[in-house]
Design brief:
The structure holds two protein chains of two kinds.
Chain A (H helix, E strand, L loop, with lengths): L4 H31 L8 H7 L3 H23 L2 H8 L1 H12 L7 H18 L14
Helix pairs in contact in A: 1-3, 1-5, 4-6, 5-6
Chain B lengths: L1 H26 L6 H13 L1 H23 L2 H8 L1 H12 L7 H18 L1
Helix pairs in contact in B: 1-3, 1-5, 2-3, 4-6, 5-6
Classes of the chains: A mainly alpha, B mainly alpha.
Chain lengths: 138, 119
């Protein structure tokens, strides 16, 4: 079930877009939540109010776009392919947490990040799709 | 209570992803341009399984939020990684994906990494 090379390029381009959107969304959300004057705690209204913060709002928008992009990715590749390769986002989050938010990243977490990259590279070297599904789109 | 929340979160995540994968393959190739996203949104509204998938995602999200209110993130993140194993199994059994040795090994290495990152 090999697909033309442009599908390969499109799949990886969308994968990169998803990882970037997810990382930007999480970073913006974390930054915005840390800027809030009070901890929202368990109050749902406080979370709605938090959305007024431009960083929180931008983070939510980026995460919604990431959700849609992941759905596009699932139209191009197997679930068993998408799951491990998108886990690379954990590595990006650790890196951005360290560099941008100046969070402490333990050696255990870096080791996990390394394993995720190795595993994702291994899965990334397999065919993106192994099933034939009848296209029933209108 | 914490294991109940973990079970709800994992079940909802697995169901959401399997439904999404099944329906997105049936919907055909999508794209990320403005017209592509409009087409995708139409597909979501028209396909009840995709609406169910989004509902499951919301259940999973709120279960996770409830879990991290009482349990440390170092428990919640590795616990959520259980969905990874179940989804790979269901991808083979339900979605009929071919999971060769390389893909299975890679998925297990990623799983180990996720558990370390969360721990």
């Amino acid at each position: 079930m090999s697909r033309p090379p442009n599908h390969l390029l499109k799949t990886y381009a969308i994968l990169l877009l998803f990882i970037a959107q997810k990382a930007a969304g999480n970073l913006s959300l974390a930054w915005g939540m840390k800027r809030l004057p009070e901890n929202p705690g368990a109050n749902p209204l406080a979370y709605v109010q938090a959305m007024l913060d431009p960083f929180v709002a931008a983070g939510v928008v980026a995460l919604i776009l990431a959700l849609l992009t992941r759905m596009v990715l699932l139209s191009l590749a197997d679930l068993s392919f998408v799951l491990p390769v998108t886990a690379i986002g954990y590595a990006v989050a650790a890196f951005l947490g360290k560099v941008v938010l100046h969070e402490t990243v333990s050696s255990r977490r870096w080791a996990g990040t390394f394993l995720i990259c190795v595993g994702a590279a291994l899965v990334g070297s397999t065919p993106r799709t192994t099933t034939i599904v009848e296209d029933k789109s209108s | 209570m914490k294991w109940f929340l973990v079970a709800i979160m994992v079940a909802a995540t697995v169901l959401s992803d399997v439904l999404q994968s099944h329906e997105m393959k049936r919907a055909g190739e999508q794209s990320v341009g403005a017209r592509g996203l409009a087409r995708l949104l139409r597909a979501i509204v028209q396909r009840s399984f995709l609406m169910m998938a989004i509902g499951c995602m919301a259940v999973s999200f709120f279960s996770f939020m409830a879990l991290v209110r009482t349990e440390p993130l170092s428990f919640a993140v590795p616990a959520s990684a259980a969905s990874f194993v179940l989804e790979t199994l269901l991808a083979k059994l339900v979605l009929r994906e071919h999971i060769g040795v390389r893909r299975a090994a890679g998925a297990l290495i990623v799983l180990a990494g996720v558990v370390l990152v969360g721990g």
